[in-house]
Each structure stands twice: as C-alpha cells, then as structure tokens.
Design brief:
Helix content is 34%, strand content 23%.
C-alpha cells in the first residue's frame, strides 16, 4: 500500500498532543495510549478493515470495542479489547475503523492509522 501524502495538521497535532516531550519509544507509546484513551468514546462499534495474523477478525467483520487494552499490553502496538464470540479479546486498533462514532473518536483513530501509514513506530 502506498504511503499517504503528509498531512500538516495531523503531523502538528501528533507532535503537539501525542508525542510532545517523549524521549524514546516507551514514552511515545504512553503518549499514544493516553491520547487515545482521552479522545476515543468507548464503547463503540467498529469494522475490521484488514485481517492480521495476530487477530481472529476477518476483513468486513463488525465488533464492539470495549476499551483500550491495559497500558502494559500497549508497549509495542495500540490494542483494544473487543467483544468477540462471547469473550473479550485484544486486537490491534490499526485493523479497525469506527462506525457512527463522534468526531473526536474518528479523528483519534485516524491519527493512529496515519502515524502507522507514514512508517512511524515507537
């Protein structure tokens, strides 16, 4: 997949609100965790946009997202807990898009997708 064009507004928001004062991968992960926790309105409905080896979801599947996974589980990737087949399962936020969510939720998830698509990592 081609890298999307740089978005100055997203870049500034990410730099000023998410990774500001982050001095390494651990602090960047924490910055993302708390940014997403504060901006996403849980629970929410979401659709899987890409199958991943580490997740049981199939592309097109709709799920209920309960909350972010515990902080220590998000040191390498932002994971969310979903209701799946009667139990809670952690999956990467990168494989989900919100359905009928508020503007803050859509923006925050979009920021995470954008950051990954630009090739940034912790």
């Amino acid at each position: 997949m081609a890298k999307p064009k740089r978005n100055r507004l997203r870049e500034e928001r990410i730099h000023n609100e998410v990774i500001v004062d982050a001095y390494g991968p651990e602090e960047q992960a924490l910055g993302w965790y708390y940014y997403l926790e504060n901006k996403i309105s849980f629970p929410l409905s979401a659709r899987c946009i890409a199958a991943k080896m580490v997740s049981p979801l199939r592309k097109g599947e709709t799920v209920e997202v309960l909350r972010l996974a515990p902080e220590d589980a998000c040191a390498g990737d932002m994971l969310v807990l979903i209701r799946w087949r009667g139990r809670s399962v952690a999956v990467p936020l990168s494989q989900l898009v919100a359905i009928d969510a508020d503007e803050s939720t859509i923006e925050a998830i979009g920021d995470w997708h954008y950051w990954l698509a630009q090739g940034y990592c912790f």
